[in-house]
Design a protein that fits this description.
The chain is of the alpha/beta class. It has 8 helices and 7 strands. The longest helix is centred in the middle third of the chain and has 29 residues. The protein is globular and about 55 Å long.
Length: about 260
Amino acid sequence: MDFGIVGKRALVCASSKGLGLGCAEALADAGVNLVMNARGAEALEASAQAIRDAYGVDVTTVAADVATEDGQAAVLAVAGDVDILVNNAGGPPPGIWSDWDRADFIKALDANMLAPIALIKALVPGMMERGWGRVVNITSQSVRAPIGVLGLSNSARTGLTGYVAGTSRQVAASGVNINNLLPGLHDTDRATGLDNGVAAAQGISIAKARADREATIPAGRYGTRQEFGAACAFLCSQQAGFIVGQNLLVDGGATNLTM
């Protein structure tokens, strides 16, 4: 399928690895030029060069922490008039309700709610003026069905989801579509970290922890970054122009919902 976005320009946050990298790769495959962001410059440059070599698109990198105001300013100074924004940030640490204090919640909100909102507010007005734009926020399956050990993520990402629900409907008439992608378990460093935590807590091997979690997924496996990236590229395409304010689960069927 021709997504109709050859020559568009996208800012993809936290895109040196994992799901963000999957989105950057899929957009590059669709002919989109990229501004890639991550905190670690070395991994970011390596991933950017691999995309340049594989897809022949223009890639600019910005090593910065978008959870901070200085990081947002650095990214926005380079991003300019992008057509596509993919918001992404690593999830806060797992735990239980009694582990977290106000500072923990503020940090989670800064990374997983307030930073995406700041980038939306900065970039969407230009998209509206030009009559076309796409925003995809990478959130979590936990906004549909909370995960007990991820209370910080449940809270912050659900807050972003509520913001998007209203905002997306206010900007859609200008040709700007805002939607959310809700990943389940994918084969990323984040999943490995969670597997390590389960293994340590239960006194089992990491392989056993992963196998047990895979058994909870109807698809019987973890997802791949390539599958996730393809879903992102579709939501950024011309063909997705009538999809507004939606929350698309990409979880192998793990979230047990009728609607």
